[in-house]
Please model this.
Amino acid sequence: MKPAPLPAIDPLRILHEHPEDCAWRTWTRPQQVVGIALLVALALLLWRAPLPGLLLLNGLAIVFYVLHSFYKFWLIWTSLERPVALAFTPEELAGLRDEDLPTYTILIPLYREALVLPRLVEGLSRLDYPPEKLEIQLLMEEDDPITQEACAKLDLPPQFRPLVVPDSQPKTKPKACNYGLYACDSDCLVIFDAEDRPEPDQLKKAAAAFRKVPERIVCLQAKLNFYNQRHNLLTRWFTSEYSVWFDLFLPGLTASGWPIPLGGTSNHFKVKALKELGGWDPFNVTEDCDLGIRLHKHGYGAAMIDSTTWEEANGNFLSWCRQRSRWVKGYIQTYLVHMRRPFRLLRQLGLGSFFSFQMTIGGAVACFLLNPIYWLMTLLWFLTHSATISAIFPTPVYALGTFCLLVANFVFVYITVVGCLNRGYYDLVKYSVLTPLYWLMMSWGAYKAVAQLITRPHYWEKTDHGTMGGAG
Model:
């Protein structure tokens, strides 16, 4: 089937209608002034009083670590105490009448995905949803003729709608999704990636959930996990991370009523609300995380449904690092965009959600960047017993630092164990002992992200799909 032309659509609507929420400019002028002033003040402090300056910075960092640790402990505890994912029995889903179901659009952004396209079409054709109420948009890029040719050779069912996204900048997934959003007139919409394998009844679960939740809930996040979790050590670590993030951490945020940094796929939306927000930010390379914050900031909410979409874990280190650095870069973009007016953000979110935003978005990046520094200091102290390192760890700071090193790190490893057990991945538990090595890899990606934020802030590093094999 040949792709259909798109109507005239402005994919940069958020830039024109809500520029304050757009990552088109990485730093605003006030942020640049404040940032430079802080750097100058820090340089003067370390020049005039190096030891007190290092002691102050170390004390602040250790206090942050303690707060961040207790914050994550609280969320995991909350998710275990108060399960919030909306679940439905097969009998409840069978009782849904086709005529009562909302119309649904599925967005599938595709770029260099000819390899996985046949399997994608086959999998989506098995979704348990009335075809007459379903539109599946295959969003292909204009400069990707290979995927277009592969699509033209397929005998697509009538609910599939191949579309070609015009070649323009920025060349990102959210820009393609905006074309799909404004080209659809359905009640609900969901995004799947090219390699995704959603559970067949996921759309019905989402439709049932939208009828059950309050009107302000306009987004439902399904859980994500991997079908090739045992391909190699990296995919095992990645699977453990996702099992904690989607099965424990995000449900904890949901139960607490705090903003959810959405996953990049399996987000179900009410189309009307999404259009009111201006769609996705095409300049943000983690548009999902940003959109989760914007929903909450503008009075909307998100919830979770008990359904899993199976993805392909990235098992190649270089490819994984590119993907991770893009995610971290997007987190920094999201933090800078929403902190342009911090006091207004505090009023919009409320104190609890504002604190959660600091810990979830800014705090995650800070941990990635700080971890190697403290690991290096610990190693140097054991090797040299440096007097300078000892001086910046007076008794109170040393006690808190020891807590973070021994207790907090142990608990974080244990949380990974709980995530694997909760998913039934008992054979992956033993690999949790090596999780600190995975943290080191995350820090590598974070430093790469900082460098790229300066040189190529809107560059989208493509993740290769279809290279890891089938279910593992």
